[in-house]
Each structure stands twice: as structure tokens, then as C-alpha cells.
Amino acid sequence: xxxxxxxxxxxxxxxxxxxxxxxxxxxxxxxxxxxxxxxxxxxxxxxxxxxxxxxxxxxxxxxxxxxxxxxxxxxxxxxxxxxxxxxxxxxxxxxxxxxxxxxxxxxxxxxxxxxxxxxxxxxxxxxxxxxxxxxxxxxxxxxxxxxxxxxxxxxxxxxxxxxxxxxxxxxxxxxxxxxxxxxxxxxxxxxxxxxxxxxxxxxxxxxxxxxxxxxxxxxxxxxxxxxxxxxxxxxxxxxxxxxxxxxxxxxxxxxxxxxxxxxxxxxxxxxxxxxxxxxxxxxxxxxxxxxxxxxxxxxxxxxxxxxxxxxxxxxxxxxxxxxxxxxxxxxxxxxxxxxxxxxxxxxxxxxxxxxxxxxxxxxxxxxxxxxxxxxxx
Length: 377
Hints:
Strand order of the largest sheet: 6-3-10-8
Structural class: alpha+beta
Oligomer: single chain
Largest sheet: 4 strands, mixed
Radius of gyration: 21 Å
């Protein structure tokens, strides 16, 4: 029975964790328009507010999140307002790594893939991307950039922060504050080269940044991403480990290491990496709960896998990890709860990445619905 469930999950494997589709647009004349060959930047404005209505205790960082990776875009003013520019020098547009065929066969659930920024520096793939705020001690709601349409104004409204306890992780490393100017400049040049699709040049700049500032956690993280996109996994892992060693509270490398562990089918290590990340921030990373669920499933811990997948879905308001819904469908089918399974398969179909092949999931849904009919009213 378990082998059958694993086979079903393998048959249902599809692109996971925000497979981006091309949503080409830029800011012009007060509204969102297609960018064409223009290099005009993209501007978004809005506010960051506390859920309790109090004033912000400090300036919040505005982050663009794609494929579970957060890239700082700018800061709010003292009153919480922001006006940020999205573009090549602010988001590297790097693709995510592909999951190995071995991991797919083991039930990981599909290739993690992204789509690079296109049309020079002005057009971005924002379907599946969100905008959030980062402030220590607070959990941010996210604004789904997929909802933006041509002709929309640049004001995306309010990003709400909720006061929480137990968040020690940060998305902007303290080591960046102590980095010398020449190291910071090298990191910025690396991001520009990465956005232009020049990984070799980006790598050289990042090597310069880490040589000038060996504890530069952000530069090590960026280097890991550049190496990972070139399928140089052992080197990427080493760079991520350097980032963690430089600043243990810096969360992005923890997520990257968890992803690499899951992609390699190293399930116990995946659980360890996810646990380390969730200790730092138990609210901001539904991907970590999804990777945890996949690891638990492959280790034969179905009940624990279900709880982790449910937590991923609960936190994933932007639907960035829809495969958590698919995994829940498989798990509920294994328990004989076909009504719940059908609901989760439908949710996956509803939130699946654009252009995803849904045939396998539709087949699983049809099977669940047939079982429901057999059981009668």
C-alpha cells in the first residue's frame, strides 16, 4: 500500500515552489504597463502597518520573495511608507535548483525550478512572487504580486505586521553592516551581473566580496545561489555553510541547505536543516514545513508528515508551495479519507504553477471522487 502511495506521488510530480511564469510589466505613467524592450524601472508604493494600530518601532525592510528566496528592495520611512524600485540591481532573478531524478523517484515531488528575469533589466517574472516586510519580532503578511494587472496603479496598499515572540532569525545579516564599502560594492556588482545572466562574472565579484570580508554572510549566500544555478552543488553547499558559520541567525542559507538536502534525498539531514530554520523563525517559511513533510513521508512517518504539510498550507497564504496540497491529497488517500483528499487535490490544481502538467493530479482526483461515489451518501 505504501509503495502504491509513493508511486502515486511520483506520478503526480510537477514543478514545485513557485514555478514562475512570465508576467512582463513595468511602471509608466502612474500605472502598470507592459515593459516591451524598455529598461524603465518598476516602482511600487505602499505602507507597512502594525496589526494593533501602533506606530512602527523602526524602519522595516521591504522584501521581494520568489521561490522562497527573499531579496531586500528598500526600507520604509519613519512613518511606514515605502517607495521601492524592483529591477536588475535589486533582484538577481536566479533560477532555483532542479531536484535530481533520484529524489523525484524517492517521492520528493518534482523539480524546483524558476525562470530568469527577461528583457534586460526592466521586465520581471512576478507570478508566484510576493512582497513582504521584515522587522525583528514581527511576522509579516504578504502581498501576492500575481494579482497585479495591467493598468493598476503602483500603490499596492498596506503590508500588515503582527507582533510575535520567538523570532530570532533575520533576513538581513548583521555582518552586512560591518562590511567595508569595497566588499558591499562587489556584492552589488555581483547582483547586477547575475540579473544579466552572467554567472561567471557574478561569481568573481562574490569571491572578491568574501575575500575582502570573510564573514560576509550575504555574499556567501549569493555565491551559493550562483554556484547552485550552475549545478555545482558541493561548492554551493560549502558556500551556504560559510554563510551559516558567519551569521547563524541569517535565515536564507538555512533554507538553501534544507532544499539541497531534500533534493538529494537526505531525509534526516533535511529534518535537521528545517528544524534549525524553524527555531529561528517558525512563521515565515512554509517551504521548511513542506520539506519537513516530504522527509517525514519518505521516512514512513505519515502522521507527522500530515501535520507538517497542514502547517505549510496554513502559513502559505501566497500559495508558494502548492505541492503541500498535493502531498496532503496523497496522505489522506492513504488513510481512506477520499473527501479530504479530493479537496486537497483540487486546491493543488487551483494553485498550481502556470503551464504545469496537471494530468497526473487530475487522475488522482478522479480516483478519489470515484471512491467517494462508491461509498455512497
